[in-house]
User: Which sequence fits this backbone?
């Protein structure tokens, strides 16, 4: 679909997509944003960059001063090129460096840190306030943009999610066993849902989509059609109220 064919109801809107690791939300959010000509905000990447910075600076997360100092180095932007959402820390492309099994592990304590979450949520809100954006993460529908126009919660079975991660690692030449991936996903699900700040949960007003048996194209189409239906009904009810 060409940008000019996008229905008006999408103009200026905020769409949030949350879900556990491997639910397909990154690819879905990126392709949906591309289809709508929206900005794509990968909030997980911001936590990953802080984990990378913490590793480089050898930061003790228990030390507030060290964490504050660490966050002064957070200067991130995204560039969409060749179908890839490149993540830059200052001028350094860290896209692959933030997606290693090591960062997968280091990021959980970073994501559970109240001060870091407060900083990153404010950064994400600033980026989202102009609208025309698809945000993707764990708390984008509940904390970052609780007033989003469309909220989606993607889920999939553990086996499907582990298999998707396996394929993702393999495509980067990173051999991992299915068992190790499954164990890591269970660990991350637990960390994501049990932390006290910004836990992963489905907002009461999110539309839930189970992606276990959907291809990426089907996921994007479903999310697009759901978003269109939601926004159209919102536009109809607000015009009736006027
Ligand atoms: O989606 P991802 O795997 O790139 O996310 C990386 C980590 O960051 C993951 O452990 C969950 C966490 N995260 C979060 O706590 N809140 C978000 N909005 C996005 C990600």
Assistant:
């Amino acid at each position: 679909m060409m940008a000019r064919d996008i229905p008006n109801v999408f103009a200026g809107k905020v769409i949030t997509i949350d879900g556990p690791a491997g639910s397909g939300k990154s690819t879905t959010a990126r392709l949906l944003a591309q289809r709508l000509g929206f900005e794509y905000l990968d909030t997980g990447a911001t936590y990953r960059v802080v984990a990378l910075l913490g590793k480089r600076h050898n930061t003790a997360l228990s030390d507030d001063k060290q964490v504050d100092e660490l966050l002064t180095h957070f200067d991130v932007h995204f560039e969409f090129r060749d179908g890839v959402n490149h993540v830059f820390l200052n001028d350094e492309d860290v896209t692959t460096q933030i997606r290693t099994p090591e960062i997968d592990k280091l990021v959980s304590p970073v994501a559970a840190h109240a001060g870091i979450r407060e900083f990153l949520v404010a950064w994400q809100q600033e980026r989202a306030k102009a609208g025309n954006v698809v945000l993707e993460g764990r708390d984008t529908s509940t904390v970052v943009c609780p007033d989003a126009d469309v909220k989606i919660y993607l889920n999939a079975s553990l086996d499907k999610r582990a298999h998707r991660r396996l394929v993702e690692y393999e495509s980067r030449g990173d051999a991992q066993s299915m068992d190790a991936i499954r164990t890591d996903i269970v660990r991350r699900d637990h960390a994501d849902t049990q932390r006290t700040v910004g836990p992963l949960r489905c907002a009461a007003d999110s539309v839930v989509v189970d992606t276990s048996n959907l291809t990426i194209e089907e996921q994007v189409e479903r999310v697009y059609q759901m978003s269109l239906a939601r926004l159209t009904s919102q536009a109809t009810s607000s015009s009736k109220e006027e």
Q: What stands out?
A: Residues 21, 43-44, 47-48, 107-108, 111, 137-140, 188, 192, 198 surround 2'-deoxycytidine-5'-monophosphate (CB under 6 Å). The first helix runs from residue 25 to 36. The chain has one domain: 13-226.
